[in-house]
Q: What sequence folds into this?
């Protein structure tokens, strides 16, 4: 769509809390400054979108949804560098600025400007849309800064490449980078949706001694096994804390990755910890949710509680690496994909996601 002579492109827009997805015409704008224009080839359907659609992660409606984006560069702003027209790319919503105090100190994961921020998107009726997570990529076209696009091997199919935008790096990186899983670790992953299964894969890649997957869905536990879980616990049929303690000889887990997020699963994760363990919050809690924590117990058992945002990944390093592992057959992301949809079928895809049907659907354009 470089030099696109059409006046508009189509995008998925939600106008109100719990409102339906509407496919609307959005006026085409040429890239300025360091922006690049992408022809979107695929966009994953993620729970983070749903949080915005339901008003639990913000209320800046209308939202242009979608942030797990793969595409081809079709146009460059005058100051855009690092990519070329024709490149196959994935949008990385988290890229450190490189200039702030935290970046200068060698702590890019603490950069306050990591999250992509984008100007409002003028919609067809003059309203200003907000791109979810600064992207708004469930659309035929999207504009993002050049530093937020990462070239990957064009042999990766678009529906797989889109998965590298959020869910896969968020889970994989939480195990590898945030928790720093190693061969001596017994690891528990709570919640085996898209992010949780990716966390299982990351723990397996790191050589964890034991990986226990916890969920209430037999299908999701089966998927976790396919990605490297050594043990599974059906939390609808057994006490997950007791089961983990039994599997670990009473010690508890060295690493607990909460891929659900929220007070209930956080309490479960705390109860599973071994002394000196690492608990990593991976799933996003709802706005205003509060969890209780026994400080005396925490003090006596030691260890750490960490938050992992986008898996503490470095986009330029990790996205090509994950793509290469897919192509090498090490990371079977075809099994991660639950179904593909046309843009007009986006609502159906999100409905299936909310019904717990599969790991991740993708809109292919």
A:
């Amino acid at each position: 769509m470089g030099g696109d002579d059409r006046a508009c492109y189509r995008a998925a827009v939600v106008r109100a809390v719990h409102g339906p997805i509407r496919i609307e015409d959005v006026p085409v704008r040429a890239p300025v400054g360091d922006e690049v224009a992408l022809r979107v080839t695929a966009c994953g359907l993620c729970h983070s979108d749903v949080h915005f659609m339901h008003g639990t992660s913000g209320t800046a409606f209308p939202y242009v949804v979608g942030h797990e984006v793969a595409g081809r560069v079709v146009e460059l702003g005058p100051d855009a560098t690092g990519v070329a027209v024709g490149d196959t790319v994935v949008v990385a919503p988290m890229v450190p600025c490189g200039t702030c105090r935290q970046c200068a100190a060698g702590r890019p994961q603490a950069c306050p400007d990591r999250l992509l921020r984008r100007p409002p998107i003028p919609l067809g009726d003059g309203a200003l849309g907000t791109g979810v997570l600064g992207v708004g990529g469930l659309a035929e076209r999207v504009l993002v800064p050049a530093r937020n696009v990462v070239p990957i091997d064009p042999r990766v199919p678009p529906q797989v490449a889109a998965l590298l935008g959020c869910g896969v790096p968020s889970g994989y990186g939480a195990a590898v980078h945030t928790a720093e899983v190693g061969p001596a670790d017994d690891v528990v992953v709570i919640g085996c949706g898209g992010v949780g299964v990716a966390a299982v894969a990351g723990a397996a890649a790191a050589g964890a001694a034991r990986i226990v997957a916890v969920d209430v869905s037999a299908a999701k536990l089966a998927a976790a096994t396919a990605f490297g879980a050594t043990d599974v616990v059906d939390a609808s049929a057994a006490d997950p804390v007791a089961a983990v303690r039994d599997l670990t000889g009473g010690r508890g887990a060295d690493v607990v990755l909460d891929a659900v997020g929220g007070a209930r699963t956080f309490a479960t994760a705390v109860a599973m910890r071994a002394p000196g363990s690492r608990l990593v919050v991976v799933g996003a809690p709802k706005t205003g949710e509060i969890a209780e924590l026994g400080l005396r117990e925490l003090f006596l058992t030691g260890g750490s509680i960490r938050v992992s945002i986008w898996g503490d990944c470095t986009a330029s390093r990790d996205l090509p690496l994950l793509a290469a592992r897919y192509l090498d057959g090490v990371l079977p992301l075809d099994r991660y994909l639950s179904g593909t949809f046309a843009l007009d079928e986006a609502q159906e895809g999100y409905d299936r996601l909310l019904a717990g049907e599969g790991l991740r659907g993708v809109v292919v354009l």
